[in-house]
């Protein structure tokens, strides 16, 4: 409910503002230690990113309530935003976007970690699990760039708004696609913030969508084997439907204005 989100936001904001906050049966304040605030900034940003790869990965709708709180905290405490991006880029280099190259002297295990894979006891995680986590992270990012905390200061601009999403999309299309990863993340990104980008960029947005369909999708097809077509087919169907209807639907789970009265 909207009232619950306000409580969560106020508690985090109070903590970062140096007020005393009830936590785990204790009353704490960042002023109790000279490095308390830096520590809390770091851990909070890490927590937001973790929610992307855990909660949003499993429940896509969760992107919106988490993102609206993260966006509001970012606006009031810019340091959290910088650290959020640092944690996000480390866990998911595709959010930069950046595809790390294998350099001489880098072990395979280290390289897999650089690509965002979890490696435990020299065993790399399954591709499905990896893609699910990356989807959660990109969906959270795509939700943050379009949402503002409704009770914040509306005078300023969004600290990391849709222009950053437009830039991400353009940079993705300037890179050689990767099997599975590129189609999955483009679909996740456009499903979550395509509607907002369409409203903001209008004719430019549709030119971009046409470019993806006519030029970029064939490049993904060229590197995809018949057994790896799932994510690409889903993305192609999404593009076709949007271009036919000249409309990107509102994402499932988006928060209507009535939500804040709940």
Automatic annotation (TrEMBL):
- Main subcellular localisation: cytoplasm
Q: Where does it reside?
A: Cytoplasm; Nucleus, Nuclear pore complex
Arranged from A to Z, the UniProt key words for this protein are: Coiled coil, Cytoplasm, mRNA transport, Nuclear pore complex, Nucleus, Protein transport, Translocation, Transport
In the record, biological process GO terms are: poly(A)+ mRNA export from nucleus; protein transport
> Matching InterPro entries, A to Z?
GLE1 (IPR012476), GLE1-like_sf (IPR038506)
One cellular component term from this protein's GO annotations in UniProt: cytoplasm
Pfam families from the xrefs?
A: GLE1
Keyword Membrane in the entry? The reply is no
Which GO molecular-function terms appear in the entry? inositol hexakisphosphate binding; phospholipid binding; translation initiation factor binding
Which family does the similarity line name?
Belongs to the GLE1 family.
- Function of the molecule: Required for the export of mRNAs containing poly(A) tails from the nucleus into the cytoplasm. May be involved in the terminal step of the mRNA transport through the nuclear pore complex (NPC).
Q: What is this protein called?
A: mRNA export factor GLE1
Q: Which organism is it from?
A: Steatornis caripensis
Q: What is the gene called?
A: Gle1
